[in-house]
Amino acid sequence: MSRADDTGGTAERQVLLNPGPVTLTPAVRAALGAGDWCHREPEFAALTRHLNERLVAIHGPLDGFRAVTLAGSGTAAVEAMLASFAPASSATLVVANGVYGERMGAMLRAQGRPHRVLTHAWTAAPDPGAITAALDDVANGGDGPPLTHLAVVHHETTTGRLNDLDAIGRLCRERGLTLLLDAVSSFGAERIEGEAWNLGALAATANKCLHGAPGLSFVLARRDLFEASGEGCGSVYLDLRRYYEAQHRDGFSPFTLPVQVAFALDAALAEHAAGGGWEARRQVYLERAARIGRALAGAGVQPLIPPEESSAVLRAWCLPEGRGYAELHDALRDDGFVIYAGQGDLARSIFRIAHMGDIRPDELDRLCRRLPALLARGPA
Ligand SMILES: *Cc1c(COP(=O)(O)O)cnc(C)c1O
Predict the structure, then answer these.
(1) Which of 75, 153, 210, 219 should be mutated for ligand 1, with most atoms under 8 A from CB?
(2) Contact 75 CB / ligand 1 (< 6 Å)
(3) 74-102: b or e for each residue (b if 16 or more CB lie within 10 Å)?
(4) CA 221 to ligand 1 center in whole angstroms
């Protein structure tokens, strides 16, 4: 598909139902072309400070938190958070129940930071009993340095599961563990608590629930984490204290930020606020999920995990017996819809539909007619 025929005019456009990047609204797309600024001039410094302030306010009150913005996708923000805040002299417990949780374990391994990974089946919820047992084991003299940090994914996009952060966060509070949260696919659309979850830092991106363009990501952290001298960061580019120092001193960044992507994020944040903030966005996603869910239920398609355990942002659906992902993907793509495959062992058994971005009512109607028509037809 050419890039030019996708400008949101009257012609049918491509609608992205993958978990980011999302279909941009006309205002956000227009902002990308707003002009050429030097990132070392005061107007861009002012924009950076403005973005950081808005980002901290979205899930307010996150008292005592500050944001820093960096160039890179969500993975860059997660890796920067771990490189900057996972300690070298004590250990981080990674609770993993999908691709993104396991990736945090791989990052800590690559960084040489002490950690343990508590793995779960991808379709399973994190098990508070197993987390408690892992913490007790170390506290009672099991191998390795004491556990002081816990890293987990909020919305595990692998399966659409919204992990129960009230339970995990309560444990972090009780045990005095600093929570490091991958909120890449939940920030801006699911509830996030600072105090109650003992949150130390979270990582997220412009181009998922905030509906910005890809290229900028950000980390929110408690001010004391940014200001602690730290134990050294295993990275120069991803050292968040450098960003904090520069962006919160005069607004400048240590490295070039994608200026036009920042314009787009500014426009996206304005739309997010005007629409009613994260709760309103969550509601929009839930309505889309309910419509799509009814259409799929009509074709006998089952959800991978119970809807009440899923995020509003994305749902995973079981492919009917004998049906392949590729044929469904290709048929929908011909109709202008891009869905997403499962990963790993789920690649052959599920498909995923995200509810983010600019999806017009007529497009949702068309999708909800096409899905059952394609899936109820039986194997070709
Ligand atoms: C999308 C996503 C990421 C990061 O992916 P990028 O491709 O680097 O933007 C990390 N964690 C979760 C939970 C995600 O959904």
Answers:
(1) 75
(2) yes
(3) bbbbbbbbbbbbbbeebbbbbbbbbbbbb
(4) 18
pLDDT digits (tens, 9 = 90+) for 78-106: 999 999 999 999 999 999 999 999 999 99
Do residues 63 and 84 touch, judged by C-beta distance below 8 A?
no
Tell whether pTM > 0.70: yes
**pLDDT score at 380:** 47
Which segments of the chain have a pLDDT < 50?
5, 7-10, 380
Could you tell me how many residues make up the chain?
380
207 C-alpha vs ligand 1 centroid, how far in Å?
10
Q: Is 359 in the pocket of ligand 1 (CB under 6 A)?
A: no
User: Sign of the C-alpha dihedral, residues 142, 145, 146, 150?
Assistant: negative
CB atoms within 10 A of CB 324: 13
- Which residues lie closer than 8 Å to 369 by C-beta, 6 or more apart? 295
Residue 82 CA to residue 356 CA, distance in Å, equals 27
Cα dist from 154 to 74, 94, 95, 192, 301, whole Å: 13, 12, 11, 9, 26
3-class DSSP assignment, residue 120: coil
pLDDT attached to residue 200: 98
Residue of 19, 341, 21, 348 whose CA lies nearest to 156: 19
Tokens 């044929």 locate to 327
Please choose, from the candidates 147, 144, 182, the residue with its C-alpha nearest in 3D space to the C-alpha of residue 19.
182
Tokens of 291: 């419509």
Find tokens 């045990």 and name the residue: 175
Cα–Cα distances in angstroms (integers) from residue 192 to residues 182, 186, 368, in the given order? 11, 9, 31
252: burial class by Cβ within 10 Å (0-12, 13-18, 19+)? middle
Residue 155 backbone dihedrals phi, psi, to 5 degrees: -105, 110
Atom of ligand 1 nearest to the CA of 76: 8
Amino acid 11: pLDDT = 59
